[in-house]
Design brief:
Blueprint: H1 7-55, H2 60-85, H3 90-107, H4 109-124, E1 132-135, E2 138-145, E3 149-153, E4 159-163, H5 164-169, E5 173-174, E6 180-182, E7 185-189, H6 195-208, E8 219-225, E9 230-235, E10 237-239, H7 243-261
Helix pairs in contact: 1-2, 6-7
Length: 279
């Protein structure tokens, strides 16, 4: 068995190495310089692009995403140029790379679907970080919009990770998109209660709530004659961040004032009438 540490073998390897360097050394050096300086230029171009987008007030997530896309695309071109300088057959290399890319694409088609959906969400800006949305059957505050998924934080502080394809394929409700919201309340009174008095009390309660906006004007009207109650539609407007505070405050105040004024708040009930008949 040949000893790989044999002096003669080492001498042959050394001579072959010297011959290889003498033939291809310059090309290898140029390829290394192309890679090093090309990488620096790619990084600089990507950073300048990011700064330009920041001056144009482009979304932060989109800036980072486009910056990375530009950088890695330029880096791929630099690597191909460097390999070409070494004398490798770039055509064969690209063919193999294309075949590998096709195989990877087929294997990761679901991930690529989420990737494409993430690009669309970032570019179209249906919602942004900090918005409270309902999408893909989930409701929560948008914590992050990533390339493959969107992270929501629920009111009870749970993190929900939703694939971007699921978000984009369904209806998206952006609850905090506008500065103001209408609070929709339904308040019922008994059929024997004074309807006009109850209506005036509801208007007074809404007017006295400091977070209710004067414009648009709050609405208090009879909504329906239900089975067990006469229902009022109470619809004040408020700032979006005050929505639940106004909702809870008015509901509590209605109960207190109606009790003080002797107006009943009925619950579902059924009247049963019994008639005697001769045997």
């Amino acid at each position: 068995m040949t000893n790989f540490l044999d002096p003669e073998t080492v001498q042959q390897l050394f001579e072959q190495g010297i011959a290889f360097v003498s033939i291809h050394g310059l090309n290898i050096l140029i390829a290394l310089l192309i890679f090093v300086f090309g990488r620096m230029i790619a990084k600089r171009i990507a950073e300048l692009t990011r700064l330009a987008m920041r001056k144009s007030n482009v979304d932060e997530t989109l800036r980072a995403f486009l910056r990375n896309i530009i950088y890695y695309a330029l880096l791929a071109a630099v690597i191909i140029m460097a390999l070409g300088q070494t004398g490798l057959n770039i055509t064969s290399f690209l063919a193999v790379l294309g075949a590998a890319g096709l195989a990877i694409g087929l294997a990761l088609k679901d991930s690529l679907s989420n990737f494409a959906a993430g690009v669309m969400l970032i570019m179209l800006r249906f919602f942004k970080k900090g918005d409270f949305i309902k999408a893909a059957g989930e409701t929560g505050k948008v914590t992050a919009i990533n390339i493959f998924n969107t992270i929501l934080t629920t009111a009870d502080n749970r993190a929900i990770i939703v694939p971007n394809s699921s978000v984009l394929s369904g209806t998206i409700i952006n609850i905090t998109a506008n500065d103001t919201r209408r609070v929709d309340l339904v308040m019922g009174i008994g059929y024997d209660d004074d309807l006009l008095k109850a209506k005036e009390l509801l208007k007074k309660i809404v007017k006295e709530e400091p977070r209710v906006l004067a414009e648009p004007e709050p609405l208090v009207e009879v909504l329906e004659l239900a089975d067990s109650s006469v229902n009022f539609a109470v619809r004040p407007w408020c700032k979006t961040e005050d929505y639940w505070g106004v909702y809870y405050a008015i509901t509590e105040k209605v109960k207190i004032v109606f009790d003080q004024e002797g107006i009943s708040i009925p619950y579902p009930q059924t009247d049963v009438h019994l008639y005697k008949t001769d045997a």
